[in-house]
Amino acid sequence: METAPADGLIAASWLLIALPLAGAAVLLLGGRRTDRWGHLLGTGTVVAAFVLGLLCTLQLDGRRLDVALFTFMSTGSLDVRAGLLFDPLSALFVLLITGVGSLIHVYSIGYMEHDPRRRRFFAYLNLFVAAMLLLVLGDNFVALYVGWEGVGLASYLLIAFWHERPSAATAAKKAFIMNRVGDVGLALAIFLMFAQLGTVSYDGVFGSIGLLAGGTVTAIGLLLLLGACGKSGQFPLQAWLPDAMEGPTPVSALIHAATMVTAGVYLIARCAPIYDATPTARTVVLAVGAVTLMIGAIAGCAQDDIKKVLAYSTVSQIGYMFLAVGLGPIGYVAGLAHLLTHGFFKAGLFLGAGSVMHAMGDQVDMRRFGGLAPHMKVTFVTFGLGYLALIGFPFLSGFYTKDAIIEAAFDRGDGWGYLLGGLAILAAGLTAFYMTRLMLMTFFGRPRWEPGVHPHESPAVMTAPMVLLAVGSVAAGFLLVVAFPLEEWLAPVFGEPEAAEHVVAPIVVSVLVTLVMLAGVVTAWLFVGRREVPVTPPVRVSPVTRAARRALYADAVNESLFMRPGQWLTRALVFVDNRGVDGAVNGLAATLGGSSSRLGRTQTGFVRSYALSMLGGAVVVAGALLAVTTG
Amino acid sequence: MTDFPWLLAMIAVPAVGAAVVAALPRGREETAKQAALGVSLVVLLLAVLATAAFDVGGERFQLTTSVPWIPDFGVDFALGVDGIALVMLLLIGVLVPVVVLASWRDEPVGRRSMRTFFAWLLLLESFMVGVFAATDVFLFYVFFEAMLVPMYFLIGSFGGPRRQYAAVKFFLYSLVGGLVMLAAVIGLYVVSANELGEGTFAFDTLRQVEIDPDVQRLLFLGFFVAFAIKAPLVPFHTWLPDSGAEAPIGGAVLLVGVLDKVGTFGFIRYCLPLFPDASRDLAPYVLVLAVAGVLYAALLAMGQSDMKRLVAYTSVAHFGFIALGIFAFTTEATTGAVLYMVNHGLSTGLLFLVVGMLIARGGSRQVGDYGGVARQAPLLAGVFLVAGLASLALPGTNSFVSEFLVLIGSFPTRPVFTVLATVGIVLAALYVLLVYQRTMHGPPRGVLLEPAPEASAPGTGSPAPVGGGGATAATATLDAPAAAPARLRVHDLTPRELAVAAPMVALVIALGVYPQPLIDLVEPAVAATMSDVGADPAGVTPEAPGGTD
Fold first, then answer.
1. What range defines the domain where residue B362 resides?
2. Both A191 and A332 in a single domain?
3. Does the pLDDT of residue B456 top 60, yes or no?
4. CA B434, CA B302: separation in Å to the nearest integer?
5. Each residue of A11-56: pLDDT tens digit?
C-alpha cells in the first residue's frame, strides 16, 4: 500500500507525542511550584492526546499517511529522518495508549494522593506515554528504537518510584538490564538492514526485503524477536516482568499490562513483511509464545501476591499474542484483537488490585485477604467482570479473542497446529484455575485480615476508571470481533480477510475451551474455595508447586548462568588489571630504573628532573634535525 | 571577519589570562576566579564566532594563520581547522568555563593557592586549543608535549591523597608516548626531505607524500603508540584510572573530556591520512584493542569501588567505541566517532562533575559510603541520572547518536567486531545502574547520614511513609533500628552547582534530539579523511543489489 503525505489534522499528529512530553518537561523542570496542579496537567495532556488521536483516527479512512518532521541524522549513505507513520495499525495503538492511559492517569490522582512525590509520578507517566507513542508512530526503525528505549527508561523510573525500597530499586535495574539484552537484538537487526539494504525506514526495508537472501531475512527476524522478547517479558527474558510489580499499581496496569509489554507484539505485527518472508523465524516466534504461555500460566497458579498472579497472567497472555502473530497472516489480527481486549481487562484487573491494596493497607498477600466482596462492591463487580473476561467466559472479551487465536492455531492444519492449539486450551484451563483461586482468596471466604485493617471502597476518582474498563472488558471482544471486525479495519495493513477454512469448527473450539475453563474453575474451588486458606503458605508441597512458586527457576538459572559468573569475572579482572597489567608496567619501569624506590625518589625532585628531561629532549631533537639536514 | 586570526586569539587570550591570574597578588583569590571565568567565557565567544566564520562547504582547512617559526627546518607556526578540529575547539570553549565554575569552592591543599590552579587551567586551555588548531606536525608535537605541564601540576599539586604517584605516572606514560612520536615526527621529516628534496612539517604537504609501506608501518606505530596511550586503549590504559581518580574534578573533566581526545583526534588527523596503507594493514589489530577495551573496561568499571576510578574506566570503554568507529573506515562510523569525542566530553564531563558534587558533600570517593541520596537531593540525583543515561547512550541523549553511528557505520565493514562491541551496551547499562542504585537508591546510609540523635524523639520514630502503595512492612524492616531514624543531612544542588550542571544537561539533550548541525559541520572533514585512506567518502554501499529506496 502506498504511503501518502499526511493532511488535515493528521499532519499535526506529532502533537500526540509533544503534548505528554511537554507535560513531563513542565512537571520535571517546574519543581515544587507545580505540585498543586501537576497531576491535573499530567492527566490533561494525555486526555488531550486521546481526543486528538480519536479525531485523527476518524479522518484516517484506511490510508497510510506519513508525517515528515526533520532530519535526525544523515551522514554518508545513512539517512535517518524523524517522521511519523499514521496508519490503521498505529491508530489502534494510539487509541489504546491514550485511552487506557487517560483512565489510569485519572485513577492515579486518587491512588497517589497521599504520596509527596505525586507530581513526579505524573511526570514519569507522561514521559512514558510520549515514548510509547513515538514507538508506535515512528516511520522508521530508529524512531522505533528511540521510543523502545524511552519506554524502558520510563519503566525503570516508575518501577523504582519508591526507590527507598531496595527491592524496588533492584527490580527496576533488572528490568532495564534484561530489556537491554533484548535491545542488542533490535539494534543488530537495524545494523543488518542498513548494511544489506542501505535504509532503516519501514517503507525502504519492507519494499526491498525480497532482495535479501533467505538466511539474512531469518537473521533479521530472529534479532527483532530477541528485542520483542525483552520488552514483552517472553521466554527467555521473562523474569523481569513479575519483579516489575514493585512499581505503584497504576504503573503495573498501564506499562506492565496494557501497553509497553505489548510492544513486542506490535513490533512483530509491524514487521509482518519480514516475517512473511521467513517461515523459520515465524516458527521460533510461535515456539517462544507457546513456551511463555505455559510458563506464565503454571507460575501464576502458585503465587500468593495478588499482583504477581496478575503479572504471570500477563506473561502468559502475551504468550498467546506471540503465538498468534507467529502463525503469520492468519494470526496477526487475532493477536492484535487479544492485545486490545487484554489491554482493557488486565488494566481493569490491576486497578482493582490497587483498590484492594488501598483498602488493605498496601497488603499484597492474598492469604491476608478474604471476604472482601461485601466491603468493596464496585471493586468486586468490576474486578469480577475483568476476571470473567480474562478466563474467557462466554460472550465476554476474552472468549472472542482467545478463541480466535486457538482456532488460528488449529488452522495451521499440521501436527504443530494441533499441539499448539492443545497447549493453548490447556493454558486456558490453568488461567481459569489461577484467576478463580485469586477471586476466591480475595473476595470470598472468611476474612484473614491483619489486625487493624478496615477495608473500604475507594473514592470515585479511582472507581470511575475501573467501571469504564469493566465495560470495555465486557464489550470489547464482541465489538472487535463481531460488530466492527478488526480484520476490516486492519485490511489496509495485512490484506483483505479471507474466508478462512477452519480445520476444527469454531463452535467445537468454543465448547472445548469453555469446558476446560469450567474445569479450571471447579478445580480452583475444590482446592481453595471449599477449604480454609492457611495464612502462611504450606511448606510441605509437591515439587510441581515448589517449582511453580519459583516460576520454574528462571531467576535461579539467570543467577547461576550469568550473574554469579559475571561477578566472579569482574572481580578477577579487577585483580588482573591492578596487579597484572599495571603491575607489569610499574615493574618494567622499576626494572629499567634499577629499583622500585627510584620512582619514589624522582617524585621529590620532579620539577628538576622534568626540566632536565625537557632539555634532554630538546638536545635529541636538535641533534636529529642536524643529522637529517646535513646527512 | 574571516581575516581575523581567530585561532591565534584563542591561544593567546587564555595564555595572557594565565599570566595575569598568576601575577595577581596573594589574597586576591576572588579576582583570580572572576578573571579566569571571564577569560574562559571570552574563549567560548571566540570559538562560537570562529564557527560562524567557518564555511562548511569550503576549503578543508580554514581560519588559517601561518608564520615561519624555524625556517631552517621548515617549521611554521601554522594554524587552521577543519570541521573535526573546530568542534573540539567548541567543546573546549564550553568545558573550561564550566570547570572554572565547578572549581569555585575547591580548597587547595597545603600552601597552594587557587590563583595558581586557575592560572594552570587557563594555560592548559591555551595549549589544548593549540594542539587541535596546529596544521604543522612539529607545532602539533610541541603543543602535545606542552599540554602535559599544566596537567601535571593540576594533578600533582591540587589532586587527591595519591596525587604525586598519579601525576608522575601520567607524566611518564605521556612522555614515553611523546618520545616515540617524536621519533616518528622526525622520521616523517626525513621521508619528506627524501621525497620532496626539502623537508617539511606542513600537514597538507605531507599528506600528499607517497611513503613506502614498510616505512609507513614504522611511522604509523610511532604515532599510534603515543595516541593509544593518550586516548587510552587497553593495555595502555592503567594510568588513566589513577590520574582520573586523583586529579581535582575540574582537571579530571578536562583530562578525560579533552586531553585524551587528542589521541583519537590524532588517529583521524595523522594516522589515517599520512599512513593510509599502514592504517589499512594494521586496522584489525587496532580493532582488537578497541573491542577488547569496550568489554574489558566495562567489566572493570563494574568492579570499582571508587567512583572516580569507575568513571575513568567507563571512559576507557568509550574510547574503545571511538577507535572502533575510526578504524572501520566508513564515513558513517567516523562521523560517529567524531561526534562521540564531543559527546563523551559532555556526558562524562557531566558525570565527573556530579560525582564531584557528591564527593564534596560526603568527603569520600567510595561508592559504598553513600546510599539513598535521591530522597534528600532529587536534583543531584536527577543530574546524576542524566549523566549516567548519557553514558549508557540512551536515545534522547547525545551519546546515543554517536554510539549508534559508530556501530551502524562499523557493522557493514567489520560485523564481528561490531557485534562484540554492541554487547558492550548491556555492560554499560550495568555499570551505570549499579552505581546509581548503590548511591542514590535504597534507605539512607553512609557518610551523609546524620549521627544518631541521643534520644529518639517520640513521633519521629516511624519512618516517613513511602507512598500510597508502598509496602509498609518492607520499610519497617529496612529501618530496623527504628529507634534512631536514619536521616541524611545532604543539601540539594546550590545555585552555583545548578549553573554548572544546567548547560551540560541542556547540551546533552539538545545534541541528542537534533544532532544534524554537528554532523553537517564534521562530515566534510570526515569524507576527506576517508578519501585519504582509500575508503568511499559517500559512505557504505548496501550489499543487496538495488537496495536503496
1. 275-450+488-541
2. yes
3. no
4. 8
5. 999 999 999 999 999 999 988 889 999 999 999 999 999 999 999 9
More reliable by pLDDT, A354 or B110: A354
One-letter amino acid of B368? G
How many other β-carbons are positioned within 10 Å of the β-carbon of residue A545?
14
Instruction: Check whether A626 has a pLDDT greater than 70.
Output: no
d(CA B413, CA B358): 43
Q: A176–B331: do the CB atoms touch at under 8 Å?
A: no
Residues from chain B that touch A226, judged by Cβ atoms under 8 A, are: none
Q: Residue A153 and residue B389: Cβ atoms within 8 Å?
A: yes
Helices (H) and strands (E) in chain A, counts: 28, 3
Shared domain check, A602 and A536: no
Whole-number Cα distances in Å, A623 to A626, A630, B71, B141, B189 = 5, 10, 16, 17, 14
Task: Give the residue numbers spanning the domain of A590.
Answer: 563-630
Pair B101, B502: CB distance under 8 Å: no
Cβ-Cβ contacts under 8 Å, A273 against chain B: none
- Residues A599, A501 share a domain: no
Pull the grid cell for residue A29.
523542570
Residue A58 shares a structural domain with residue A163? yes
Residues A476 and A610 in one domain: no
In a domain, B335, yes or no: yes
At A331 the three-state DSSP class reads coil
Under 8 Å CB-to-CB from A605, ≥6 apart: which residues?
none
Are the C-beta atoms of residues B11 and B130 closer than 8 Å to each other?
Answer: yes
Residues 6+ apart with CB under 8 A from B81: B7, B50, B54, B61, B62, B63, B89, B132, B133
Give how many domains chain A has, as a whole number: 2
**Minimal Cα–Cα distance from A73 to chain B, Å?**
5
Residue-wise DSSP of B11-49: HHHHHHHHHHHHHSPTT-HHHHHHHHHHHHHHHHHHHHH
Q: Is A250 helix (H, G, I), strand (E, B) or coil?
A: helix
Reported as a single tens digit per residue, the pLDDT across B15-74 is 999 999 999 988 888 899 999 999 999 999 999 999 999 999 889 999 999 999 988 888
Q: Is the pLDDT of residue A597 over 50?
A: no
Domain count across chain B: 1
The SS3 call for residue A234 is coil
Quick check: bond before B235 cis, omega within 30? yes
CB contact under 8 A, B186 and A621: yes
A579 and A474 in one domain?
no
Question: What is residue A259's three-state secondary structure?
Answer: coil
Q: Where are the beta strands (DSSP E) in A407-527?
A: none
Domain stop point among A530, A556, A582: A556
User: Does residue B209 belong to any structural domain of this protein?
Assistant: no
Residue A167 to residue B474, Cβ atoms within 8 A = yes
In terms of domains, do A133 and A186 share one? yes
pLDDT in tens, A319-366: 999 999 999 888 899 999 999 999 999 999 999 999 999 999 889 999
Beta strands (DSSP E) in B376-517 are: none
Q: What's the rounded mean pLDDT across residues B479-494?
A: 64
Nearest to A208 among B378, B467, B547 (CB): B547
Within a domain: residue B431? yes
Q: Chain A contacts of B418, Cβ < 8 Å?
A: 191
Secondary structure (3-state) at B58: coil
Co-location of A541 and A580 in the same domain: no
Tell whether B444 is covered by a domain.
yes
- Dist. CA B304–CA A272, nearest whole Å: 45
Does the beta-carbon distance from B468 to A111 stay under 8 Å? Answer: yes
Q: How confident is the model at residue A452 (pLDDT cuts 50, 70, 90)?
A: confident
Write down which residue in A540, A556, A572 finishes a domain: A556
A72 Cβ partners below 8 Å, 6+ apart?
Answer: A80, A81, A82, A142, A143, B514, B515, B516
CA dist., res. A142 & res. B482, Å (int): 50
